[in-house]
Each structure stands twice: as structure tokens, then as C-alpha cells.
Amino acid sequence: MHVNGWMQAGMTIPVQGCMPGAGAGERPVLIVLDLDGTLTDSAQLGRLLFKRVFSLLGFGEISDSLADSFNGPSADEVCARMGVTGDQRILYDTLLDEVEVDLVRTIGVVYPGVHEMLEQLSSQAVLAILTNGSQAYCKACLSHYGFAPYIALHTGFVSGVSKAERIAMWEREVHARRVICVGDRRTDIDNARLAGAYAIGVTYGMGSAEELQDADCLCASAKDVAQACMRVIAAS
């Protein structure tokens, strides 16, 4: 599928002269968006996900607070904390895909104004989704929430590839003149910094304003995110 002249996939190659919001030969702005807590209100989804997966793995009923602490970290970090290795790790990945996709389809919620934000920004920049959720989860969100028409690049968690590394890969692929990263957790801001990107923290997600204090700016709504991105695009 081609979106705004770009092939929709986890890693893509730009089509010359067809860059969103750019003339022929002009380098585009790349906007990398977190998914959970930035585009979707997934607090309840994440809690149910981890409680169900670890119950199926034989860990019994884990607490809400423990389940909530896994909403954000990568699968490698979660499994290391819980001591999940070997064949049990393979089963974890399988269960995570199955349960996560099912929950997206049954209780998934998009934050107000997100579709309008994506529509506005997709005509001015190359939009990407970068999440620590699984590949299957990322694809399910693109389809179920109707994000696909706006997103040119996307990937779920890939073991051994950090978010900062992925951002840098995409920056080189699209020859971006500026990169903007949008997320709701400190790790999103840290990875933006490592990639040399402009960091926008959203305070309507799971991270507090204090946690996001090192961001270049804070936004309280999807509309605020669109306005902040447009200012950076104009300045670049």
C-alpha cells in the first residue's frame, strides 16, 4: 500500500519527488509518534494484557501495579524482570500477540483529536509510529483505529534495536531535514535526545509533566501536538 507516495512498511525507501509537504528534491520533516499513551489511551488495555498473559504463563494473578509497570518497557525488559526465558519466552511472545490484538479490537480507545492531528500533519511531514508493542499489535492498531492512511513508516518492538537506533535509520532512509519525536514517557524523550530529534512530551498519556520535564515542549492534547509540530516544521 502506498501512502502519500511512500510504501507503508516497517522499513521503507522513499519515492523520489513525492514527499509529503515537500517539493521535488526537498528533504522532508520526519515525525515519529509513540503509540500507547500518545495516540491511544491504553492504560486499561495494558493492565488487562499483562495480567492475562502472565496468568496464562502460570504466574497466577499479578497485581495491578505490577501489570501497569510493564506498560512502556520493551518485551526484553519485561521478561528479564519476571525471569521469563527459553521456551517460556517463546510462549510469552505468542500469547502477547494474541491477547494484545484481541484487546485492541474489543476495548481499544483513541484519544480525542488524534485523527484530526494525523490528517493535518500527514500533508506536511512523513509520519511514523514507533512502539514497544509487538509487530502484530502495531499492525492491528493501524487497521482497527484507522491510522493506516496517515502513516508512512511503522514498527513494533525488535529485539536488539533501540528506539533511538530505529529513529536514526528512518532519518537516513527519508533524508529528513528535521526529526520530531512525540511520546508520553521519559524513555521517549531520552531516545529522541539520543537520536538528535526535537522532543515533544504529551501530558495526557501515562507520563507526568515532571517525568517529561526534559522535553523541548509539553502538550496537553492532540491539537497541541499538531500546533507544536507545525511550528517546528515552519522553523525548519
Task: Please specify the SSE layout and strand pairing.
Layout lengths: L1 E2 L2 E2 L21 E5 L9 H14 L7 H6 L5 H8 L3 H22 L6 H9 L3 E5 L4 H10 L8 E3 L7 H12 L3 E6 L2 H9 L3 E5 L14 E3 L2 H14 L1
Q: Low-confidence spans: pLDDT under 50, at least 5 residues?
A: 1-19
Globular, elongated, flat, extended or rod-shaped: what is the shape? globular
* Tally of DSSP helical segments: 9
Largest beta-sheet characterization = 6 strands, parallel
List the domain count as a whole number: 2
Query: Into which percentage range does the β-strand content fall?
Result: 5-15%
Share of helical residues: 40-55%
Succession of helices and strands: EEEHHHHHEHEHEHEEH
CATH topology of the largest domain: Rossmann fold
CATH structural class of the largest domain: Alpha Beta
Radius of gyration: 17 Å
> Helix/strand-derived class?
alpha/beta
Number of strands: 8
Keywords:
236 residues, 8 strands, 9 helices, Rossmann fold, two-stranded antiparallel ribbon, six-stranded parallel β-sheet
In short:
The protein has 9 helices and 8 strands.
Task: Write structural notes for this entry.
The chain has helices spanning about 45-55, 65-70, 75-80, 85-105, 115-120, 135-145, 165-175, 185-195, 220-235; strands spanning about 1-5, 5, 30-35, 125-130, 155, 180-185, 200, 215-220. With about 240 residues, the chain is of the alpha/beta class. It folds into 2 domains: about 1-40 and about 110-235, HAD superfamily/HAD-like (Rossmann fold, 3-Layer(aba) Sandwich), CATH 3.40.50; about 45-105. Strands 5-4-3-6-7-8 form a 6-stranded parallel β-sheet, sandwiched between helices. Helix 1 runs antiparallel to helix 4. The protein is globular.
